[in-house]
Amino acid sequence: MKLKTFKYGKYSYEYYLVEQDRKTVALTVQPSLNIILKCPIEYETEKIERFLKRKWLWLEKQVQYFKKYKKKIEKKEYISGESFLYLGRQYKLLVKQSRKEEVKLEKGRILLFTTKSISVSNKKLLDQWFEERTKKVFESRLKEMMEKFDYDFVPKLMIRKMSKRWGSCLSSKKIALNPFLIRASKDCIDYIIIHELCHIRYKNHDKNFFKFQESIIPNWKEVKEKLELRFL
Q1: Which residues contact 81 (CB under 8 A, 6 or more apart)?
Q2: What is the reported pLDDT for 70?
Q3: What local confidence, expressed as pLDDT, does residue 69 receive?
Q4: Which residues contact 119 (CB under 8 A, 6 or more apart)?
Q5: For residue 34, what are the domain limits?
Q6: Based on C-alpha coordinates, what's the Rg of the chain?
């Protein structure tokens, strides 16, 4: 899978080119606004350009539609019935009045018990729950992934928001993970942790780095593609 750019007049689109053993070309736009173009292996660039030009109007309409859709779903009211992504799954929120405030994950639902009926309070409670779960899950996955390495230390884990990265190796003994990664499935979380742990040994994305990473997680390309297509 390769990231490409298609320009048409004043418009510019980034899309993922996926070469497969197939005879036709297929173009899709996902709700996440990822644009996927699947084509035969070693398909000519000129043919791809012509195909995209023919599909330009449809492509622009799809992008605009999902931009509106994305704004709509991102504007949460923290009321019963809304969905939240956690560890690769969508969970319905159920808000219940209670004498004490707490959040539980139960039978495919997020149960939010609150003493107040205002959404601001619900947001605070749910954000706190996500923060606690994120820290617990990340620490647990880091501990397990460390068993795959021969390092004689466990790097310090930091959780911080990053606009364009899932993770970062800050130093030889410190890594950072994006809290939004908690939305992804565990195999995707593990891949990012492994990727950053590999950077402790190899700072740059050179042949040695990728050889080392592949020795730890042979299917990293498939997991990376899953993360980019489903959870970006």
Answers
A1: 92, 93
A2: 64
A3: 59
A4: 77, 78, 79
A5: 2-73
A6: 21
What is the spatial distance between Cα 13 and Cα 212, in angstroms, rounded to a whole number? 33
**Do you know the residue count of the chain?**
232
CA angle 70, 16, 166 (to 5 degrees): 65
Residues 150 and 178 in one domain: yes
Of 72, 62, 66, 6, give the one whose Cα is nearest residue 32.
Answer: 66
Domain boundary among 109, 131, 153: 131
Number of domains in the chain: 3
Residues 8 and 65 in one domain: yes
Instruction: Assess contact for 179 and 131: CB atoms under 8 A.
Output: yes
Indicate whether 140 and 226 sit together in one domain.
Answer: yes
User: pTM, whole model, 2 decimals?
Assistant: 0.71
Whose tokens are 């012509």? That residue is: 50
pLDDT digits 0-9 by tens, 146-193: 999 999 999 999 999 987 789 999 877 899 999 999 999 999 999 999
Range with lowest mean pLDDT among 5-19, 56-70, 87-101, 190-204: 56-70
Residues 143 and 164 in one domain: yes
Domain assignment present for 78: no
